[in-house]
Amino acid sequence: MIEALHLTKTFRDKKRGEIRAADDISFRVSPGQIYGLLGANGAGKTTTLRLLATLLKPTGGSATVAGCDVAREPEKVRAQVGFLAASTALYGRLTAREMIAYFGKLNGLADAEIRARTKRLADELGMHDFLDRRCDTFSTGMKQKTSIARTLIHDPAVMIFDEPTLGLDVMTARAIVKFVRECRNRGKTVIYSTHVMSEVEKLCDTIGIIHGGKLMAEGTLAGLRATYGEQDMEEIFVKIVGAEDAK
Amino acid sequence: MNWTNILTVYLKELKDSLRDRRTLLSTIIIPTLVMPLLTFGVGTVASGVIGKARSETPTVMILGGEDSPGIVARLKESKKIKVVLTSLDWKEDITEKKVRAAVQLPEKFEAGLTAGAASTVVIYHYEGEMKSSFGAGELEKLFRELREQTTTDRLAERSLPATLAKPFDFKRENVAPPEKVGGNLFGGLVPYLIIILCFTGAMYPAIDLTAGEKERGTMETLLCSPVARVDIVLGKFLMVLTGSLSAMGFMLLSMGVTALVAGSLLMGGGSMAKAGAAAAASVSAGSVIPLIDPFGLVGVLAMVFPVAVLFAALALTISLFAKSSKEAQSYLAPLMIVIIMPAVIGMLPGIDLNARLALVPLLNLSLVCKEMLSGVWHWNYIAIIFGSSCVYAAVALWLAVKMFNREDVIFRA
User: Are A189 and A1 in contact (CB under 8 A)?
Assistant: First the structure.
């Protein structure tokens, strides 16, 4: 379960003054649900997800992840979260097995448990061929599989995906989307940020449209279609964001 | 603070660093090679150049001397110099290294010698040019011999004893034990090398583990783990400290081996002996070869430890602030000059440790190491230096932890 209540993050910039990267954002994601955070570049998606993953501290509002407060119990939150982003890379000089084991240890797992979970993940993701190869020799697909295994090694209750398909080829992107669905099917709470409309249409149970740090609209795909009288997600998005820009 | 997590981060960083060629180069390979290269490489080249210059007979010109044929003939007969025809542009010839030196004989020099008149012979040379100074040296030697012989002849003519001109003789005798001689000779150099290598040993791992991780995108991956940031920064700090201490350890080990090899060559003679003389620091006791006090070396290691902590924390903090490895390098490279300065000052003769200097970081280390290596133990200063170094190191480490908790630093892009 993720619950954000008036979540706010402001940064100070020498040139631009105060920037409200996340501005009074409130939403709720239940287990077995995928919440899609849709927004253009710089809309505040990454900041919101980093706040939930406790990589950043909120300057206002609050949020709980799997029952833990992001401001007061950041370590407990991270123990419940699997965070996968385009910006979370692998250690090139470690093998996939070492990479997974390292994050298993950081999550407090015992060696025997790490070995068993690594085997299971390698079976599920088809990683046995490259498990003992150094990550800097991997193809994009291999890297993504290893990253997925890294996020799942501690079997987190909450999965946070920040534009995970950014820059990936069609086949790798499809594999990621399939994996996100599987997370939902396993009863995990999933939050997924993207600016790709088709991914939101295919994947998300609830969609939140974010723009200028504010959550502009929220609802199911059917609900948004009904509210804005458009079938196409892109048209809905432009209507919401365009209306805000015109103000 | 969780020591299991700190150890997990440290062991991973150690494994990662041992697979990185650049880290291996700065923490193991260069420190191991620096002493043999300095001793045998530079030493052999220097002794070769000097040997070649010495084996060459210097060409000299005689200015004047038409009225002193005996002196001119004596100079021409000498096998130590080669007299060439005098040219009008003799100064230019010296400058352009066509001749090494020139000697100006005063008018009626030979007649003056017989008559007992005082006169001055001028030797022209090119200051700072090795071969020119060898030429001038040979001329000086020849004229010194001539002067001594003239004195002896004059005394003999008057039936006076030779002791009239040389009433007594004197010589130097060393009373310092070999380790004190070694301490004075190498006491400045050893801390200087230790300080430089400790910093260079910390520099590359610090850059790789902070700015390098930011650049490669692994920093965010690591921060996603439930480990507290203080544990991450301490794990990384321990790795940087390992780099710093290993650079120093390998340098000292290599220095010891080099000294043994150079010492045995020195004892056995041979052309390499001259090259090895500079590092002959720990050969058998009782010989004339200088030694380094082993207790002094242990003391140096103890004093260096907080400084290595200071370097590791400082390098980590500065690199952490940088967005990329390149930016981190541009911050740390000028810092090297700041670090070298007190080390160089410490090497200068005449600068002695006092209570005020004992608080100046690095300079205090350089000065106290010089003393300890020569067997002098000023316990009050040692306590001040160790204590102040620990305080500086603790502040630097606190700064590193503080920096690691700053979002604007960690996510600086």
Answer: yes
